[in-house]
Specification:
Blueprint: E1 2-9, H1 15-28, E2 32-39, H2 47-63, E3 68-78, H3 81-93, E4 98-102, H4 110-113, E5 118-121, H5 129-148
Length: 155
């Protein structure tokens, strides 16, 4: 069973997003070993200081783990759901852990981007970071279902 870690900033405060994340996390429980690590959100009021502080916390969490690091970032490369499933399947076949990093409201510093094996863009559009977590978890679930051939994904 593949292990996947999601490193993210702060807890989800929006009820319906939290419910959606719990829904997909629960569905993933049968396909992968999922670890969600929430680093504390910064209390800085300056966006650059907030981004820097949260990025340091994420880098510290990365340093405690081994695996292929995927940073979810608007500057990344977009992938189709089947391509993402294929990449995830290849990691699983190689026995590798996938570590996904999702920044806070003001994103990530270049120091985090430089630590990545892959820079992945979820969309050309901008979403709140809480919603990005939900979208990511749905896509992770979709990838596992594509790899199982379940029919959840309609090509």
């Amino acid at each position: 069973m593949q292990k996947v870690t999601l490193l993210c900033v702060g807890p989800i405060r929006t009820k319906w997003i939290a419910e959606g994340c719990a829904h997909f996390s629960g569905r993933l429980g049968h396909a992968i070993r999922m670890e969600v690590v929430e680093v504390p959100a910064s209390r800085q009021t300056d966006p650059l200081k907030q981004q820097a502080e949260e990025s340091v916390r994420l880098l510290e969490a990365i340093d405690k783990r081994e695996g292929d690091i995927w940073v979810l970032d608007e500057r990344g490369k977009a992938m189709t759901s089947p391509a993402f499933a294929s990449s995830l399947g290849a990691l699983s076949d190689a026995g590798r852990t996938a570590i996904f990093v999702l920044g806070g409201a003001y994103g990530l510093t270049d120091a985090v981007r430089k630590r990545t094996n892959r820079l992945l863009k979820l969309s050309d559009m901008t979403f709140p970071h809480e919603l990005c977590r939900l979208i990511f978890l749905e896509q992770l679930y979709r990838a596992t279902e594509i790899n199982k051939g379940s029919g959840y994904h309609h090509a």
